[in-house]
Amino acid sequence: MEHRQSVKVLEDLSDFFELLRSCGAAESRIFILADKSTSEHCLPLLSESLPGQGRNCVLLNVSDGEQRKSIVPALHLCERLLEYSADRHSVLINLGGGKICDLGGFVASIFKRGMRWINIPTTVLAQVDAAIGGKTGVNLMGYKNMLGTFQFPEHTVIHPGFLRTLPKREVLSGFAEMAKHAIIASPELWRAMLTAEYIDLKFIEARIGEAMEIKREIVARDFMEKGDRKQLNFGHTVGHALESFMMESPAAKLLHGEAVALGMMAETHISYQMGLVSEDVLIEISTFLAQNYQGVDIDENEYHRLIEIMRQDKKSNKDRLNMTLIRGIGLCEIDQEPTMDKVFDALTYVMRYPFDK
Ligand SMILES: NC(=O)c1ccc[n+]([C@@H]2O[C@H](COP(=O)([O-])OP(=O)(O)OC[C@H]3O[C@@H](n4cnc5c(N)ncnc54)[C@H](O)[C@@H]3O)[C@@H](O)[C@H]2O)c1
User: How many angstroms separate the CA atoms of 267 and 273, rounded?
Assistant: First the structure.
């Protein structure tokens, strides 16, 4: 069975009211989930297109930060929905980045065994990745996305204009997922990235629909991640390990996309060592990533800790690491099991790479 998510790219947000009307949601009770930044920057842009210009909607606010994406705030939101007499015909609009879409989607999919919800992602990362694919989730005891569901929202609305207030670092972090989509599935989009004079918001806004479509298409073929969907994990085994490792250190923090960028460099190096890609591809990808992202400085003595974290990855086990590698631009190899020494060499390659930034 094909699972195709309903996604609309709206250049003009005034069309959102028509979308609510067409699915009968304009007459329903509407709840809006937002955090501090999206209440301030995004809600004013959306209000005009809500029934009664938003006056009849209930705003549910959570504070910014990953710690709000956990089970206690989720239960608290369920209680508030109950207090406001939300029912299964009510609509929850998730207005925010991946954190709000994951949290709101989780709450909506369990409240009264499922209420209607609409995702309105407002970060690059959420527009091309987190809000697409039907995975909802919250963290439990500090472990990411331990509780969650697989379910699509009724609609997902992408409005590139929201990105104009997003901090530059967040923009670039999300762009790493766009680059990943290009590397795994679109030589044409990858060429456009390589030849663009600047990777700026103008470029990202113009190409975001195309990058989102790559994920939507892959998910439609393999909703439950039995095969093709694993392609989207390219860069993520090493990336997640770097992200978690840096979280353990009080010094610097890596945003998700920044870690994925370094993870893609490492996993391209592993692909090269395994004879899957040529040196030219390795150089092309590494050069591009080093122009746009910063390196990190992790001592060689810590690589064992990084590999330990990779082993805890859902797809790996004690003796074997499971990774998605590439065989060229637009060609993936899922379920690869590189040896530990190849992973070690790839980490050395990334740590010693002369990053431009
Ligand atoms: N469900 C999935 O398939 C999936 C995939 C990838 C990531 N994720 C999840 O996504 C989350 C990360 O998402 P994210 O990178 O969007 O982070 P985020 O949701 O925390 O947003 C980043 C910051 O930007 C602010 N912000 C959002 N939109 C803004 C705007 N338009 N203007 C100004 N500020 C704005 C937010 O308030 C927040 O402070 C993680 O929890 C991750 O686990 C989920």
Answer: 10
